[in-house]
Amino acid sequence: MERNIKERVFLLFSKKVVNYPVTATLIKRKNVMVNILKAEIMPNEDGYMLVDVEGRKKDIEDAKLFLKQKGVSIFHVSEKVIIHEEECVHCGSCTGVCIPGALYLDKNHRLKFEPQKCILCTLCRETCPTNAIEIIG
Amino acid sequence: MKKKIQEINERIKKGKACVLRADEVVEMGKKEGIKEVLKKVDVVTTGTFGMMCSSGAFINTGHFEPPTKLEDVSLNNVKAYGGIAAVDIYIGATERANGRKDYGGAHVIEDLVKGKKVRLKAKADPTDCYPGKEVDVYISLKNVNQAFLFNPRNCYQNYSAATNSTNELLYTYMGLLLPNFGNVAFATSGELSPLFKDPHLCTIGVGTQIFLAGARGYVVWEGTQFNSKAKRDEKTGIPESPAGTLALTGNLKEMNAEFLKAAYIKGYGISLFVGIGIPIPVIDEEMAFYVSIPNEMIKTKIIDYGVKRLKRPVIKEVNYAELFSGWIEIKNKKVKTEPRTSLYKSKRIAEILKRWILKKKFYLTECVKNLPVEGVFKPWREI
Question: What is the mean pLDDT of chain B?
Fold first, then answer.
């Protein structure tokens, strides 16, 4: 029998998709177990979810294809985010893509990171121009 | 009341000059008015620290034994230009290393400024006067003759902000643009930015001495894509879209890696963060007005990068106070904004330049030639 695999992913929804029962479809039609770890979903607003998905590899691939077709962006999450101060130029590029606001510029325009707010989505690393953000895991 | 640059320099020499950073003079203008700014302030220092792709460095290595022309030449595996005299080369910031995406010309320049050795490899067609066939040596800023930054286009006077209307993630030179207007990226130090404080370039021209990456630098020419025909705000005279640019030079050997930093933009390529500061003399009431213009009065456009054409649609017109606030509204949605220019470093540059002037290490220069008032930036056209 094929073994189940488990993945942690970050899902970014546009407001058009928020009104569609995405999670229910994943569970009922795509045979994937979904454990919601953190989410911010409001009617007629963009939202996000941090979820663990578990199921057969084929079902998970199928579920991801369904999400992409629905216009949901999928990111693999990390275990830890480290900011290397010596490489950071405090440009602020990462702050606009940090949805939970874990990265922000303080009143002196220096980058601050609050790890407890971080949802490990890795978008910050994608946009950092100076390789100051390291992702572990 | 009018002041001459010579008179301001005399005041600097006597230790009597009043020098303020642009953000300080904006506050002063709001509280005390333009007339007081003219009366009290002699020089306003500006600063910017952003990615400026059109940058690079000329290097002269010194001649080799046997004499060899550096023709097919690379530095740390990054192709450099050798199509000039035998041992003169130009390394461009955005050139990528062979086989690597995240290392390029900007990194070579940063490595050199940090004092690191860089491997130079070159091949040549031997001639009677240059019989050598190849070179494989290490260079550093210590063993080359000249190394100077020569940036064809820096210091853009205004730049459009970027957003993304599509439902796909976009990797652009303005950074990651999240789907469905997920964020807005903009690139300026706003009221601290040099060319906003002298919108008609009355005091900045060929020969103007500036702060360039921690060293003294100079404006050498109009920058490429210089456009004097951009629409200007009626009240402030500031262009509302990309307009003036500067070609700059300065001695790489005197530069500081704190103000020159390589950048790798995923999905786009390599660029170089360049730190620039320009002193603006407050010579008359007009200049006193310009140097006091706050972010609220400086406008730009938010462009949709989701449309992959040269002419992209404008989503909204905004001012920089709105963009710096961290949030903006697009189509009834609250959208996060992010700067691509480091305001922290921009302010540090303006502060350092201010201290140089106050310590009499830096004087103002009268430019020897004004930048063009007729320049138009055109898209490519067939002959």
Answer: 96
Domain of B71 in residue numbering reads as 62-144
Query: End-to-end distance of chain A based on CA atoms, in angstroms?
Result: 28
Q: Which residues of B touch A95 (CB under 8 A)?
A: 326, 336, 338
**CATH class (in words) of the domain with range A5-76:** alpha beta
- B361 CA to centre of own chain: 23
Domain A80-136 adopts which CATH fold?
Alpha-Beta Plaits (3.30.70)
Chain B: nearest CA to A53, how far in angstroms? 22
B372 has pLDDT over 90: no
Whether the complex's predicted ipTM is more than 0.85 is answered with yes
**At residue A100, what are phi and psi to the nearest 5 degrees?**
-80, -5
- B317 near A CB under 8 A: no
Residues in chain B: 383
The closest CB to that of A126, out of B50, B176, B179, belongs to B176
d(C-alpha B294, C-alpha B301), whole Å: 17
Q: Pseudo-torsion of CA B195, B196, B200, B201, nearest 10°? A: -30
Ranked by mean pLDDT, which of A46-55, A114-123, B90-99 comes out on top? B90-99
B129 is catalytic: yes
Q: Which residue of A has its CA nearest to B261?
A: A130
Nearest residue of B to residue A99, measured between CA atoms: B336
Distance CA B133, CA B126 (A): 6
Please report residues of B whose CB lies closer than 8 A to that of A110. Answer: 344
Overall size of chain A counted in residues: 137
Write down the pLDDT at residue A1: 61
Number of domain units in chain B = 2
Which of chain A's residues have a Cβ under 8 Å away from the Cβ of B338?
92-97
**Taking the domains of chain A in order of start, what are their residue ranges?**
5-76, 80-136
pLDDT band at B383 (very low <50, low <70, confident <90, very high): confident
